[in-house]
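Morning - S-adenosylmethionine inputs below, output right after.
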Amino acid sequence: MQSDARKTALQILIKIQAKRLPLDLVIEDFQNTINTMDPKDRRLMNAIVYGVLRWRSRLDRVIAESSRTPLHKIEPRIRDILRIAIFQIIYLDRVPESAAIHTAVELTKFISSTRGAPGFVNGVLRNVQKVWTKIYDPPSETPFIQRMAWKHAIPEWMLERWTARFGEDRTEILAQSVNRIPSITLRVNRMRTDMENLQGLMDEKVREVSPNPWINDALDFSHPEGAIDRLPGFRDGFFQIQDASAQLAGLMLAPRSGERILDACAGYGGKTGHLALLMQNKGEITAVDLNGSKLMRLTHEMQRLGVNIVKTQTQDLTNSKAAMNLGRFDRIFLDAPCSGMGVIRRNPDIKWNRDEEGLKNFALRQSKLLETMAALLKPGGLMVYAVCSTEPEETTEVIDHFLAHHPEMHREAPGARFPDQARTLLTEKNDFMPWQETFELDGFFATALRKTGRRKVVAS
Ligand SMILES: C[S@@+](CC[C@H](N)C(=O)[O-])C[C@H]1O[C@@H](n2cnc3c(N)ncnc32)[C@H](O)[C@@H]1O
């Protein structure tokens, strides 16, 4: 019988590759299967999926060196099986080489009807041990960009733009950091419990639990014993998982009890839960997303947290006319869809699913969303524009372009709710822009924009 861990890992990798779908969405699709796995299998499955995506181009180099068939001519599903096996041989000490090869051959029989496929996989993998140590690291004379791409498994186009912006030294640190496995951060639900109680509950089920240095009411931890929803206090709504960067962006909006808030692009409700907490569950939050099934999950999430001030609406917010049906808001959080290039360490598929053209398309969509938000914000109101990226197209350039066309909107420094210790993460213009390589935070961008008056219509 084929091990569930490897089979599920393979199915996830095939789906990501074939449909260019984001890892988190694909994992969602497999959640029922994952929930039935025992913790050991689930850990192995996670290690394989994330490991293969993290090191993909390096693993492919080993395949190319070990196979007589050129890499691009190998059937994509067989390529994924080879990547899974090579990842185990190189990175997972606990898996003997023979087991990695045997399970790869079994997987091949399971998914391929091509007669020679199992023999081909067996033959390639028998060569791996001989070749991988010779070619895994680049020769020292390799030019910088190619050396970084080889060593850290990062596409050259990303390294080129980072090197042009930051120089070689910082790019190297950034390249290393995107492959580090980050700790997980949770936000304590103060309506249900407190830090001390939750830390006590967590202590036995996770490792390295400690208060997050940037923000109050947040705990960092690693190596959860099982799935997050099995951790103590989860079912009781004691916490929500959310990186400190995203929490700091929520504090920039600083919503108050009784206000009318729009959570635009609300997704599964990470920000919604935080905003409701800041409002002490008093007032009204309208959570909007293009994806209705995400909003259904958001509704369950709010029930779990004990939040009852949220109503949801499935809507395309790039259509500013249609959005007027939502009414006007005191504050708006726009968590815009983006490349996610600040969170590669959590979503390593982003390395292989993005290109420069795509950044321009994101920027166009972000600009349209900002236009809608400008119309929905009450005079005197505040909005926060946020993306989990630090690429200029999606951050400063989008905002500078927007402000040039909206004299009624102004950047504003975060208010008193923003923690003092995090002010070092603000730029000269008061944009919040932490760097993942320096601060152990997700790469992020958020800016607060105040609407100071009505927009003047200029006669042409
Ligand atoms: C960055 S994610 C939101 C994450 C969420 N706010 C959270 O904290 O968990 C961006 C969201 O924008 C949604 N989206 C994309 N295009 C949209 C549009 N035109 N109108 C409304 N929502 C959109 C996506 O479905 C996705 O859920």
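Note: The chain has four domains: 5-136, 142-179, 184-241, 245-451.

O.
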